[in-house]
Specification:
8 helices; extended; 167 residues; 2 domains; Arc Repressor Mutant, subunit A; mainly alpha; Rna Polymerase Sigma Factor, Chain: A; single chain
Length: 167
């Protein structure tokens, strides 16, 4: 793929990248900065893109990783050194009520992996996650309790294999 073709295809993804950036940042200015950073990294590392790969997925991965790295840098930069008597500032609660962006991205990845499972594994597993007991699942799906237990066990194994990055 020539540089012109690559640039043309990358600029064609602008709307998709803007929507994804806004979903990550929830702020239009930060989203625009993230899109710009993503374009810069894509253009600088164009030679790493393999023609057979999905360009949209490659760009989204660059954006997600850029966002996560920037978030981690900001967290480190906001570390407070407490010089007060009895560590007053260190003992103040910092719970904001908002989920951190890394957790949101990880949750989306896990939910996507669960959604990709076959129904015979996904249904009992999601019921178990929602708090159903093995017996209740077996009764509802009209299968034996041993089948329920084995399907949940094998689903966990499949998910652990798919989601090794969270181990």
């Amino acid at each position: 793929m020539t540089a012109i073709e690559f640039n043309y295809q990358v600029t064609g993804l602008k709307k998709n990248l803007e929507y994804f950036a806004y979903s990550l940042t929830a702020n239009q200015e930060d989203a625009n900065d993230l899109v710009q950073d993503t374009y810069l990294k894509a253009l600088l590392h164009r030679e790493k893109f393999v023609k057979e790969d999905n360009l949209k997925a490659w760009m989204f991965t660059i954006m997600k990783n850029t966002f996560i790295n920037k978030y981690r840098r900001n967290v480190k930069a906001n570390t407070i050194i407490d010089g007060t008597k009895d560590l007053y500032y260190m003992n103040i609660s910092r719970e904001s009520g908002f989920a951190d962006p890394v957790s949101v991205c990880n949750t989306k990845d896990i939910e996507a992996a669960i959604a990709a499972l076959e129904d015979e594994y996904k249904i009992p597993f999601t019921m178990h996650l929602k708090g159903w007991k093995y017996k209740e699942i077996a009764d509802k799906l009209n299968i034996s309790i041993g089948t329920v237990k084995s399907r949940i066990f094998f689903t966990r194994k499949k998910l652990m294999a798919k989601l090794q990055e969270f181990a």
